Amino acid sequence: xxxxxxxxxxxxHAVAAEGGFSRAAGVLNVSQPTLSGQxxxxxxxxxxxxxERRGRGIELTGIGRALFDVTRRLFAQEAAAEQxxxxxxxxxxxxxxxxxDAPYHVIPILxxxxxxxxxxxxSLTFGNSERVLDDLLRRRCDVAVLADLEPDPxxxxxxxxxxxxxxxxxxxxxxxxxxxxxxxxxxxxxxxxREVGSRTRAIxxxxxxxAAIHPAQxxxxxxxxxxxxxxxxxxxxxxxxxxxxxHDTRLHRLRxxxxxxxxxxxxxxxxxRRALRAVRAxxxxxAQIAPAx
Length: 293
Description:
Blueprint: H1 6-18, H2 21-28, H3 32-46, E1 51-54, E2 57-60, H4 62-86, E3 95-100, H5 103-116, E4 121-126, H6 129-137, E5 143-147, E6 155-170, E7 180-181, E8 190-193, H7 199-211, E9 217-220, H8 224-232, E10 237-241, H9 242-245, E11 251-256, E12 262-270, H10 277-289
Parallel strand pairs: 3-4, 3-5, 7-11, 8-9, 8-10
Antiparallel strand pairs: 1-2, 5-12, 6-10, 6-11, 6-12
Helix pairs in contact: 1-2, 1-3, 1-4, 2-3, 5-10
């Protein structure tokens, strides 16, 4: 029997990693019919079924999951082999895709990276912590910068800065003359928060549950800018990481003095991609500038 078709195997791996044919076709830059045909050819050659088609979605079969475990290692080793071949070369080209939950921590890192490696094409996308982590695990980004990442054996993670949540109000609010509040004072108040899936929301709601604090209403807004504008318009008390507050003369910050609302900012990549030169360079730059962040 001839050896396995590498293109068919890569097609299967892309679909399994991306969770669907259309996204995988985009990653491999082929048409969806071409990709579907390659996966079908692999299934027919070995007389197996690798995916269950469920409506518009797919699910790996048992043999599909077993094969995906193999292809993850296979293509990680392929990337490592490529790294060996180019490691003697200066990092003068290539790309680095970064996902982050906010610009405030990641931009200084990318600025330093760009000064050192100006030939590397950088791309940066933003989302809440849940989405950024999902992008990293699905290989839509090479490095993720986000808060309070849970330990995961698939990831290489480097904590580099501590942050904390603060409250803030508009200038006409009765609390504008104060510098701090007790957490219990948020009970019965209207609170403006990011959406479910953001780390800000998760930390606040966990602390509120532990302290049995119940806001009168939570206004959910899907961006930091939206939260800021809602508070400036008098719609409630905002909650945000201190590093993200910035300078806005319409708003007044308040420290929450009696409860730990701290978080740790983390940079992470997949362990299998840690040796890639552009990724490795990111962590080298981070180590050099982290004390100044």
